[in-house]
């Protein structure tokens, strides 16, 4: 089954790497958003979202994660600064540190798909679960 991914990230290079991995995994990227306004435009067409903490409009990632989770979207935080979400983010499954290797991206995508399917999945080694 093909899932629809949203990438909430303001770094074009990070977006390109994640987008490429998602497409190679056989899934669709429905949107790329650099900020909260852009991200919330995709709530009705997204199954899974990868969300950075610090975006073009500030540290809105945790707030975006909470909002997306309200729509039954599987949310995983991806950030260069784990300390900013050390206590967890309501609605998010967990957090993974950037930069992501290609294999880490592929493992994270499979884990997110498993979660969307109601299976526990195998978390990638660097993923810190919140729940």
Describe this structure in words.
- By secondary structure, the chain is an alpha/beta fold.
- 32% of the residues lie in helices and 23% in strands.
- It is built from 4 helices and 6 strands.
- It has helices at residues 12-24, 36-40, 61-69, 102-116, and strands at 4-8, 28-33, 48-51, 74-79, 92-97, 127-129.
- The chain has a 6-stranded mixed beta sheet with strand order 2-1-3-4-5-6.
- The protein is globular and about 35 Å long.
- 39% of the residues are buried.
Features:
23% strand; single chain; alpha/beta; 131 residues; 4 helices; six-stranded mixed beta sheet
Structural class: alpha/beta
Strand line-up across the major sheet: 2-1-3-4-5-6
Strand content: 15-25%
- How many helical elements? 4
Name the helix and strand elements from N-terminus to C-terminus, one letter apiece: EHEHEHEEHE
**Helical residue percent?**
25-40%
Which runs of at least 5 residues are low in confidence (pLDDT < 50)?
A: none
**C-alpha Rg (nearest Å):** 13 Å
Number of strands: 6
- What is the 3D shape? globular
Oligomeric assembly: single chain
Largest sheet: 6 strands, mixed
Q: Mean pLDDT, nearest integer?
A: 95
Layout of helices and strands:
Layout: E1 4-8, H1 12-24, E2 28-33, H2 36-40, E3 48-51, H3 61-69, E4 74-79, E5 92-97, H4 102-116, E6 127-129
Parallel strand pairs: 1-2, 1-3, 3-4, 4-5
Antiparallel strand pairs: 5-6
Helix pairs in contact: 1-4
């Amino acid at each position: 089954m093909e899932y629809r991914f949203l990438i909430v990230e303001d770094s074009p290079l990070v977006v390109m790497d994640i987008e490429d991995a998602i497409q190679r995994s056989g899934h669709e990227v429905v949107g790329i958003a650099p900020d909260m306004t852009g991200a919330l435009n995709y709530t009705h067409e997204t199954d899974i979202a990868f969300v950075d903490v610090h975006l073009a409009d500030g540290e809105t990632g945790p707030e975006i994660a909470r909002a997306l989770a309200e729509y039954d979207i599987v949310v995983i935080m991806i950030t260069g600064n784990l300390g900013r979400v050390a206590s967890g983010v309501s609605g998010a499954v967990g957090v993974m540190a950037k930069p992501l290797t290609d294999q880490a991206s592929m493992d994270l995508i499979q884990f997110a798909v498993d979660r969307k399917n109601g299976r526990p999945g195998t978390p990638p080694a660097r993923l810190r679960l919140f729940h």
